[in-house]
Predict the structure.
Amino acid sequence: MEHIITPKVEHVKLLNKYPEKKSALGTLYLTATHLIYVEQTNNSRAETWVLHHHIMSVEKLPLTAPGCPLLIRCKTFQLLHLLFQKERDCQDVYQSLLHLSQPVKEDELYAFLYTPHQNQEDRRQGWEFISVANDFSRMGLSNEYWEISPLNKNYEICSTYPSILGLPKNASVAVVTGSAKFRSRGRLPVLSYYHKDTKAAICRCSQPLSGLTSRCVEDEQMLQAISQANPNCPFIYVVDTRPKLNAMANRAAGKGYENEDNYSNIRFQFQGIENIHVMRNSLQKLLEVCSMKSPSMSDYLTGLENSGWMRHIKSVMDAGVFLAKAVSEERASVLVHCSDGWDRTAQVCSLACILLDPYYRTIKGLMVLIEKEWISFGHKFSHRCGHLDSDPKEVSPVFTQFLECVWQLSEQFPCVFEFNERYLIEIHNQVYACQYGNFIGNCQKERLDMRLHEKTFSLWPHLLKNQHLYRNPLYRRSLESTVLRPSTLPLHFKFWCGMYNHYDGGMHPKQSVLDQLLSLTQKQVEGERTMTELQRQLAVADGVLPDPSGLISTPTKQDSPCEKTPTAPVVQSNGSCAPLINGDAEEAVPGAEKCNEEEGAES
Amino acid sequence: MELSEHIKTANVEDVTLRRPFHPALRGTLCVTSHHLLFSDGKDEASWQLLILLKNIDAIEKRAVGSSGTITIKCKDLLVLQLEIPGMEECLNIASSIEALSSLESVTEMYPFFYRPSHLTLSGPWGLSSMEQYYKQTERLWDRWRISTVNSDYSVCLSYPSAVIVPREVDDDMLIRSARFRQGGRFPVLSYCHHRNGMVIMRSSQPLTGANKKSCKEDELLLRAVIDGSKLGYIIDLRSAQQAQQARMTGGGFESKSCYSDWKRFHRHHERGKVVQESLIKLVEACSDPSHSVDRWLSKLENSKWLSHVHSALCTAGLVVECVERDGHSVLVHGSEGTDNTLLVSSLAQLILDPASRTVTGFLCLLEREWIQAGHPFQQRCAHSAYSHARLKQECPSFLLLLDCVWQVWRQFPLALEFSEALLLRLAQEVYASNYGTFLCNSEQERCAAGVKENTHCLFQSLLRPDIEEQYLNPLYEPTDLVIWPSVHPQSLQLWTGLFLRWTEYAQNMEEAREEVWSIVKEHREQAGPDRTNNMLSTHCDTLTPFENLMDELTIL
């Protein structure tokens, strides 16, 4: 709170992106967690809540005649253009926001202040709700080829890996530790996903410390062991997701990639995904395109092309498709790495999992996947999202790209995902919001040291509680068992307006098929429930069933695991959405009034 | 020359057919006067493919040893390959296709021979006319009248026999105004807004020429349109510079001095060849197998197709703004008044008028604003995206309209009663059809060729209850509001339903469509039987499979 110089400023203008539209006049409040803008007209009141952690940058623009402008850019791609009457107020707000949006210490993050109505037991169960160990059991592990090993339980072999690791059964401890020493930051080859049908596995690691000539017998044996763990294929693919040039440049620094001559039965592949810096710049350019005032079609398409964003999304998708094909069609195991094995590797492995396994296309499955491939394997959320005031060169939209790839898939396959676009956007908002502890810290060990499980709450039960908002009504379970084979022709990649122009309501379809179908299916579920209830009462009346003292539970579709988990926090408006702010006042917007007060669900 | 004389080889056995995303098939190929028929067996259960020869835009022949391959590129964007044993047969088939797919004479075309047992020629032809529109629109009765000055098509060759004009303007004045407009297309009423009585008029450019001629009657006609109110808007679909240049060739624009009550806006729209080339480039880009995103985006940009969609929607939005928001009448024209003019005025109506958003209303709109209004379909749709023939007067204006309507549908998925399937069907029918609806270039030509007497009407057929369901939007909820589409480039998308029609992607979308239907049906069943009867009538069984086959142009 000590950063807030002026908690309330009146007569602040909120400028509309389109100059011909009227700007709003209202009051700005700063709280410990949010910036709140309240527009009060005669009979309506519109609130815009922006979480401090969502603020990416605050910029004071040159003084203009009508006032002192302040431009706030958000990590959720919201853009606020405020106009203050007094330079002094503007400066105060600017100063405050600089501090509030980028705390210096972890315990200043929202999650450490946030206390939903939950007791310790709820909190504990909430954290245990999604378990990577359970997912390994679901895959059928341990089995005769793979074991789930506690070798890293004290994070001694690799500090950025999880405490349990999937390792080939016939890899000895010496091989494991030897291999870890030959890999960048000790991130040795371990199991990411085991495909039951083909017995092929996806493994992940970081680049080998091969330099120009070095080799390591244990590492070679490790790859051999991975290969032997798959009886269906005599070789494994080793996929370096980087462009070849980047990988070669690393050799000069004593790192690099596997020399095919040293490893037996490997097939080596580059995939050409660019590094975090290229991706950061690309997003920057994309956002410039998104915020152009009134571009022509050509400006827009040229801008889109020049940003390179779609090209990068496609490169991630291509790599994911390569993995899924290798596993499902060639029955070959794959070892994936990039440099450190926590950015591109995470993208590609998790995408391949989604393509291969319908479980990860469910609401809960996606949580498990994110928990496994991203959180537990040490994707550096704190650095990549810039939660704290830290090196801006570490920030990169790697996770956003993964979510976009999933969205691109859902556009090609409208019936195979249990969740809808809003789920992806909500997860994205939550990653940056730091309201829950899941995405704080850079690896499991760090989280343990921060005692996040004691001090913060888990996001997953909260999402599950709201899952009715995130359902895809077109989801068809009957299609479950299929491996997805998306087309990766460029024309299948669309610009994700719902994400990058999320707050430009005027650009979105004015009527939502999703809402319509959700409301239809919701009524259906309710109808079925009433029907079952009526039948039950009839049965009771007929004496078929015993007295209704609650012994008979009515089976309903809502009877999902979420009700067994602790009730998620009661949410005060947490600012992950601002329903009214950019909703263009187009006059014929049937249904647009249905602004959802629920967080994150902008209609 | 009889059509059959073009056929030297009517049947070939052991032909291999290759289609995208389907296994190759072997079977028999037949050429008839109007069709290409492929069948993979002799018995009744065989799979058949029937293609109207008119649907074929281009063919490519290639010799492979003693056999030949013909690649067939259809106007509905399907591409097929036929491997024909025997070089001679291959060449014969190819030359038959070439000759029979480009028939010039209207009465030789298939609609004049299409006689399905479930339709009779004596039935009503067409859905709507200017007279009917007038009768239905009470607001018009006071100040407007039907004029039959063009009943023998002598005043304007491309106008229908009846048009709606201001009551106080007599037929002589119309004749004079027609002489002052290109092609005789004098200003006529196209739409009257139900909320405020403001109208959309359309015409061709005035023939002011280099020495700034004027025409008193034309001025009076337009003055009568706004009837004492201060202002009307003229939306000229050319840039100001183009309009100026048009004077050099005898055309021009309405000058401020002569038409003081009218305010003129210029909006540049590409036309003719440029738009046709856009379509060709876009389709080429869509079939580019390259995996470079940059290349795709630059080809998409370079085709300019989406730019045309963008400008059409922008200008239609402007018309709507004038009529609905400002409460003024509008006159729309470009040069000839037969392409972009119709595009803009019909889009504006779709946005403004709830009645034009039903299946019937939309088809009526197309009939009035495109067919009767004299869009030269035969010239514009002679070739589609694949033809290497030198372009004459081809221009996909109608396809552009359908694309724009699809964009509106995507943004207001509940507001239109019809589905994407109807738009796709129309996109197909306009290039090659069993029906006479899109034949010829004007009412006058249709009349001379006896189209109404000798062919069936597509629109009548689409409205038959057993056919209509597939064209209904299951989520339709009528709204009286103006449905103002967003014209941000981010809001407009490539119409994948059309341009990726023959890919796997289309199959996934079809699954989604079925799923939507099943959700809606389940919901309606629960909501009670009373709501379900007319909406959900299942396909009736009166159609034999073959007739069904004939009803679709290519593949079932």
